[in-house]
Amino acid sequence: MLNAIWVGFFLVAIVASLWQFGVHGQADIFAQVMQASFASAKTGFEIALGLTGVMCLWLGLMRVGEQAGFLRALTRLLEPLLARVFPGVPRGHPALGSMTMNLSANVLGLDNAATPMGIQAMRELQTLNRTPDSASNAMILFLVINASSVTLLPITIFTYRAQMGAADPTDVFIPILMATYASTLAGFLTVAAIQRLPLFNVVVMAWLTGLTVAVGGVSAWFLSLPAAEVSVQSALLSNLLLLALIAAFLIGAVWRRVNAYEAFIDGAKEGFQTVIGIIPYLVAMLVAIGLLRASGVLDGFTEAVRVGVLALGFDARWVDALPTMIMKPLSGSGSRAMMIEAMQSFGADSYIGRLVCIVQGSSETTFYVLAVYLGAAGVRRARHAITGCIAADLAGFIVAVAVAGLFFA
Asked: Rounded to whole angstroms, how far apart are CA atoms 393 and 397?
């Protein structure tokens, strides 16, 4: 799918350039498109290099937290809930342990640990599946929760915002938390309704009520603030929570007698390798998107949508974030490039620059998760997994627009 998207971007941009030349007589369009390709390639490389320090910092800190036992603590916390929302998985089955570890790693932003655990969980769930070519109910719920992906620390987004010159890279933390919670809740409730899961259980209701009250309480507090204070208080609370989490990681490491410095160095090395690995992907997608914008396709598309939204009487400020929204379920690298391009075009601290970051953090790459996890288990039919994932994506996007308007309008 990513190959088709990437090639399609180039071909559409070339056709649009020929149209601009042949129909509108724009003689310099080819020069503009080629110049955009070179500029985008340079930008992609420079952004990737600039990510190195911040990525090393955060992945180093996350490794300290992992070795300090926070992953195991989250696992113990989630086990009672998962045992009830996955009634088809027997107590004590290895799949429950793998699912819990996967979701705990996702919450902490440990993508490299989450994916192997998720694949292992799908393979273990497949041993319980009576129709091996179709996803079981447990597989579908697990996939949807993964695709909506509540992440406590959206490290990559903070890193890109820092590189793009944001005054406070973490000021989108609370809005992202709200959007990703809405995404996960919508996906979970959709699948629960289809599968008729017994939600009216003390443990399940306690979790749902507690999380909803917490997120709702934060939202209500921000709604009560004067408009000028919202972004200030958001940044204050975001940075306070992040500093508290870092302090907890370090105190936990001291308590467990973990060599925090060596753990940090190990994680930082992984951060450096991660940055080196993303350079080709970032350059490839930024060049393709640069061609689309230089040829007029991207601006023409968003303008057409804007006219339609305004004709219906709605606020159309969010329309410039639409390319990121469309790309998000299809391609992680594509949506990341769209996010960067939007921050570059509109400014990291603009309304659109912040909105695309919230959209990026609201959910995972739906079709990538489905392809990798179902493929690893040898499952061909997704059944209602796509329905649940799309419901999660839509909820995440809608809430992203709402909270961006609340915090940064």
From this structure: 6
